[in-house]
């Protein structure tokens, strides 16, 4: 039997204007990946492509300066080593327009749409610790249901480019339960917060009917 290592101790902090430079440091020259700057789920595709790189960085800065918290930074001491994008579902325009990831029901939910861990720190359960810290933050902000949309690895490990929404096991460890498989590679998982109790692991508590059928279509 293999024993899982304990998640690293991570200091999780909301991204506010004072932490902008930490975000820039973590995201580096490529804005995490391909000039994204974590704007993929916020913009229309054409807009995203038009402003990929510096434009997306400016758009994210504007968002942060407006007082909106677009996600959580994870620190190892003073070093920013991880990022998790979270917010009310309706703050992600592209998610609201997604046919595959359409809302399961009327329950107001918060969404986790992106994870990024600095390369030297991957494989240390930083993402898991970040997801925990992010759930805690969302609950403090009043969220009672938090959703994640991980990618199911088919064979072996996912390449970095496909792993930005996390993998199912990562969220299972935190207490999320699978609620739907809207495509062969995509899951919808929920964490249901309950006062003074561990998260509920039942679909009923998540306010859900039996699982939706898997559609064999691949798209975001
Ligand atoms: C995906 C990512 C966030 C995972 O971070 P991490 O800290 O290495 O993950 P963890 O160590 O917490 O792993 C938690 C679980 O997920 C699994 N996992 C992590 N990465 C995986 C991958 N690429 N494929 C399959 N499983 C993976 C781990 O094996 C572990 O499962 P286990 O505990 O059951 O063994 C990280 O690899 C990453 O940042 N990738 C790049 C994503 C990116 O480019 N984001 C920006 C897009 S703009």
Mean pLDDT: 90
Q: What is the CATH topology assignment? A: Aminopeptidase
CATH arch. level architecture? 3-Layer(aba) Sandwich
CATH superfamily: Gcn5-related N-acetyltransferase (GNAT)
Poorly predicted segments:
213-220
Output the CATH class name: Alpha Beta
Helix content bin: 10-25%
How would a crystallographer describe the biggest sheet?
A: 7 strands, mixed
In angstroms, what is the radius of gyration? 17 Å
Q: What is the count of helical runs?
A: 6
Would you kindly provide a written description of the structure presented here, covering whatever features stand out?
By secondary structure, the chain is an alpha+beta fold. It has one domain (11-192): Gcn5-related N-acetyltransferase (GNAT) (Aminopeptidase), CATH 3.40.630.30. The protein has helices at residues 20-27, 45-50, 54-65, 93-97, 126-140, 168-174; strands at 11-14, 71-76, 79-88, 110-117, 145-148, 177-180, 188-192. It has a seven-stranded mixed sheet, with helices on both faces. Helix 5 (126-140) packs across helix 6. The chain is globular and about 35 Å long. The termini are far apart. The model is unreliable at 213-220 (pLDDT under 50). Coenzyme A binds at residues 4, 32-33, 36, 114-117, 122-128, 153, 157-158, 160, 163-164, 167, 169-170.
